[in-house]
Design goal:
InterPro entries: BaiN-like, BaiN-like_dom_sf, FAD/NAD-bd_sf, RsdA/BaiN/AoA(So)-like_dom, RsdA/BaiN/AoA(So)_Rossmann. The chain is of the alpha+beta class and 392 residues long. Helix content is 32%, strand content 24%. The model has no long low-confidence stretch (mean pLDDT 97).
């Protein structure tokens, strides 16, 4: 089987690359070891696929080289992908913060990509494991697969990261990168719930299910969204976002009243509700169970009129800058993305091609570019896949 381009990985980035390359007249073969394509697409957004974010900028991505993603993102924008979605008659809506979802099902996005592949003649094969990759002296690549031998001029690695191994995630792409002399930066779970241990867990674990808005802060990053207390720790969008910036030992702080200036709000409560206890006034702006636990452990509760100005200031500081000591993360099992990956220093930012091996490309999550929660990682998949497909 001879092809111009072989793409390993039939996810978002791989399928976009295949569509783009085949539209140029290239003979394209997409291989995936899974039983069906686009598994992460299918599960995304609760089954409705958060397929892009209208507010996408390079600032929404983490990478050892924050400039690397600029070229691809500038050349294939959220508007470009929305136009494709619209052309296929897929209804969508904006949920919050620029996040776009299908009205009906993420299956529509996968169907769209497969229909586009079929329209341009890209051949997509599942149940195919790549056992070995060789680079003959004559150039190109020779692949040994469970479907037989495959020859190609260009090879695109779109195998994703380590997150959600139950869906087939593996380190295959990193192994290929190392095989051909690329550096691979250390990987860790991103967009992942945080775990608590010891007294920190004991204080909160019976509040599992409690959710409220916070601003999470760590290492200069800050995200305002919902926090969810779990049996093992904390989750929710604010925590998933900050998890990508946090590592064990880092200082993590929460503003428990992001909609208020804590000092001014407490002073107002003291003036207007002097006989009410602190736990009572806090229950007006926080879930009652959480407010009571705060007052049991961190903030001794008494009638508001009994606090001195200095004591109110201390309470305000605690509410606005509450320290949370996390012990770890839930790991790749539940992580939405993998941080780290193929070092961008070895890749062209405009084409995604290896600087070491002509014709070898790395796209999507396998590369050291990781987006925020909210459709940014899909936009990187579309943009990097498009960039590679234009030249592979």
């Amino acid at each position: 089987m001879d092809h111009d381009v072989v793409v390993i990985g039939a996810g978002a980035a791989g399928l976009m690359c295949a569509i783009t390359a085949a539209a140029r007249g290239r003979r394209v073969l997409v291989l995936d070891h899974a039983n069906k394509v686009g598994k992460k697409i299918l599960m995304s957004g609760g089954g409705r696929c958060n397929f892009t974010n209208t507010g996408t900028t390079p600032a929404n991505y983490l990478s050892a080289n924050p400039h690397f993603c600029k070229s691809a993102l500038a050349r294939y924008t959220p508007a470009d992908f929305i136009a494709l979605v619209d052309a296929h008659g897929i209804a969508w809506h904006e949920k919050e913060l620029g996040q776009l979802f299908c009205n009906d099902s993420s299956k529509q996005i996968v169907r769209m990509l497969l229909d586009e592949c079929a329209a341009v003649g890209a051949d997509v094969r599942t149940h195919c494991t790549v056992e070995r990759i060789e680079r003959p002296d004559s150039g190109g690549f020779h692949l040994r697969t469970t479907l037989g031998s495959v020859e190609c001029a260009s090879l695109v690695i779109a195998t994703g990261g380590l997150s959600i191994p139950s869906m087939g995630a593996s380190g295959f792409g990193y192994d290929v990168a190392r095989q051909f002399g690329h550096d691979v930066l250390p990987q860790r779970a991103g967009l992942v719930p945080l775990t608590l241990s010891g007294k920190h867990q004991q204080r909160l674990q019976d509040l599992s299910g409690v959710s409220f808005e916070v601003e999470a802060r760590c290492n200069g990053a800050r995200f305002r969204n919902q926090l969810l207390v779990t049996h093992r720790g904390i989750s929710g969008p604010a925590i998933l976002q900050i998890s990508s910036y946090w590592q064990p030992g880092d200082d993590l702080r929460l503003d428990l009243l992001p909609m208020h200036d804590a000092s001014s709000w407490l002073a107002l409560q003291q003036r207007e509700r002097g006989n009410a206890e602190l736990r009572t006034v806090l229950s007006d702006v926080l879930p009652k169970r959480f407010a009571q636990r705060l007052c049991e452990v961190w903030l001794p509760s008494r009638p508001m009129k009994q606090y001195t100005p200095a004591q109110l200031k201390d309470i305000a500081s605690t509410l606005a800058d509450w320290p949370l000591v996390a012990s770890g993360t839930e790991g790749y099992r539940t992580a939405e993305v993998t941080l780290g990956g193929v070092d961008t220093d070895g890749l062209s930012s405009s084409t995604m091609m290896s600087k070491l091996v002509p014709g070898l490309f790395f796209i999507g999550e396998v590369v050291d570019v990781t987006g925020w929660l909210g459709g940014y990682n899909f936009q990187w998949a579309w943009a990097s896949g498009r960039a590679a497909g234009e030249v592979a």
